[in-house]
Amino acid sequence: MLIDSHAHIDFPEFDVDRDALFEQMKRSGISNVLIPGVSPAHWQKQLSIAKKYQSPFALGIHPWYVNETFEKDIVELKKIIKQHLDNDSMVAIGECGLDKIKSANWAQQISAFEAQLQLAAEYQMPLIVHSVRAHGEVLTLLEKYKLPKGGIVHGFYGSVEVAKQYVKLGFKLGIGGLILNSDANKLHRAVQNLPISSFVVETDSPSMLPKNSDQSRNTPLLINEIVTKIAVLHAKPAVLIREQLSSSFSQVVDI
Ligand SMILES: [Zn+2]
User: Fold this and answer.
1) Domain total of the chain
2) Going by fewer Cβ within 10 Å, which terminus of the chain is more open, N or C?
3) What does pTM read for this prediction?
4) Using CA atoms, how far apart are residues 135 and 166, in angstroms rounded to an integer?
């Protein structure tokens, strides 16, 4: 059994058939999902879904949801993390990070990311990082905070060199649906050139549908195709890669 290390299964896209989807996942060898946090407005529903399905979760503020109220939101984040310190299902802080596609709130993104880096350091928890067109800035901050438990750079797309720098800082690279795109050459090279212990798998459901998909939303069921693609790139049997990915996930997330 394998876990989808990043799926927003609490989002409304799954309200109609979440039970059925969890059943289907179990039949397909996907035991559960890690639900990342995105904003104060999402946390309560996220927590109730995580409880219902016994899903591991992270609490945090996604860079798209960082706005002028972020200082107050960080105070709320600290409060809710403290309330769950005894909850074994809270396994990480995040998702948080930097995204240059939404650069209007750039200065606030940096402050909010630093606040969450500090929380991961203080509570000795892994961090789930969202890094889009910002690997340089993210690496500089990770270098500054040197998190004791590392974390996951989710939805990774980058070069072999960038991948190695994250790994050196104790981070795993979350490989998702982008790897299924035939023109994702840079990512294919990164996956081929690093050991499987550098990776975890994820779907970022309901987002990140591969280009050739005919579905209207992404689901954790895509994990099996992602594993198969990684196995092809490493020229190894998929069952072996699956095992290695599962133990790689356990190295960073304590579940
Ligand atoms: Zn996400």
Assistant:
1) 1
2) N
3) 0.97
4) 9
